[in-house]
Write a structure and sequence with these properties.
The complex is a heterodimer of chains A (289) and B (146). Chain A has 289 residues and is an alpha/beta fold. In chain A, 37% of the residues lie in helices and 20% in strands. Chain A has one domain: TIM Barrel, CATH 3.20.20. In chain A, strand 5, helix 3 and strand 6 form a beta-alpha-beta unit. In chain A, helix 1 packs across helix 9 and helix 4 packs across helix 5. Chain A starts with a strand and ends with a helix. In chain B, helix 2 packs antiparallel against helix 3. The radius of gyration of chain B is 18 Å and the shape is elongated. Classes of the chains: A alpha/beta (289), B mainly alpha (146).
Amino acid sequence: MVAVGFSLHPDEEFLDLCAPLLEKVDYFEVAPETLWFERDDGALVDNGYFRRFVALRRRSRKPFVAHGVGLSIATAALADARRRRRWLARIASDHRALRFRWWTDHLGASSLDALAVTLPLPLPPTGAAARIVRARLWQMQAVVPDVGVENNVAYFYPGDPMDEPAFIGRCLAAPRTWLLLDLHNVYTMAQNFGFDPGAWIARIDLARVIEIHVSGGRPSDPGWLPSRRVLRLDSHDDAVPEPVWRLLESVRPRCPNLRGVTLERMEGTVGAGDVALLGQELRRVRSLL
Amino acid sequence: MTPYRTHLLAERLVARALLGADPARALRRAARDRRVPRALRDALLRCAPDGVRLTALLIIRLRFERLLRGCPEAEAWFERDGPGFTRAFARYHRQVPPTAFFPAAEARLFRTWAVHVQDRRAGTPVRFTAGRGPRTGRTARSGDRS
């Protein structure tokens, strides 16, 4: 059976508002690094939300999955190696407490040349990049046996975005390495780059999909760019758009190893009036599985 | 140049461009540099300028949010004088490489920078002490989401 999940964020208001939704889902997703703080000596120490989520797991008996942003899977810079080692050690500690069913991070670099750019960025989809990603996934598998990458959202791409599925395939050559297929990322890139999201998905090996993400976003402000061009943002701050629902309907039956579909919504974007909508979206996800 | 070294060079060029004053122009300049391997130059040429500019803005915004989560006195300054703080933050972002991955470390970087600026010019509306917490008497909020 494919499970329904919801992403949790370390935010008091978000968790209070979304408390009724936690009963409606089968698992929870967290970004492990949002549950840490960095001490002055560099140690990554759990914060209050980490303990809160450990308690939630015990109380609810529902599993957790890990979906990070900050490991920086496509980074090769040696100057960043020590940070990545600390990150992996900390995830191992988290895994002992939260028993992640699987662990994914974005297919990109959120640390470039040891600088925190935070947003996972695309690097040229070369054979060397695929080797680096495979090596990183192998390191992750020493912590959690089932690991993977999420197809990233990027606002520029150093190549043809339609070649990205083949690159993803090269990254996921080893057993128990999976794809988290983020349908809003595909939709957003399709809107911004002008391609057919269905054609992009048709190039993906859907047997590699372990999880699907659905979420919403908004257009950028025309004043942000000198050209006044508006790009769609993967901002997780709005309802799941109809084209993303249609993608879910079409892709779900073709993913034989799919284990979960997760609804994502950013903290700070949920008001009391949004909780009913999120409940409807969770029900709609379940109806499609 | 080996493919691995080319990947490292790509990281460095993209980082330098996105953290610079004109990211799209910086990437175009790198794409014209004949010392850069041809395949990488071709890849950089494919990067849409508007997408590069938008990405650079999002990186700044994420750093801004990271700082405000970790630095109550910066947040107080922003609340008191949004435009003034935003101008100061833009200078900070240009002058200080983003080596901090967590709010507390970003706050330490900012405090060190702000003390340096205070030493050179009067008028910073909040007193900063290098590497320490605020002197405003405010209680630190969930800096690292603790």
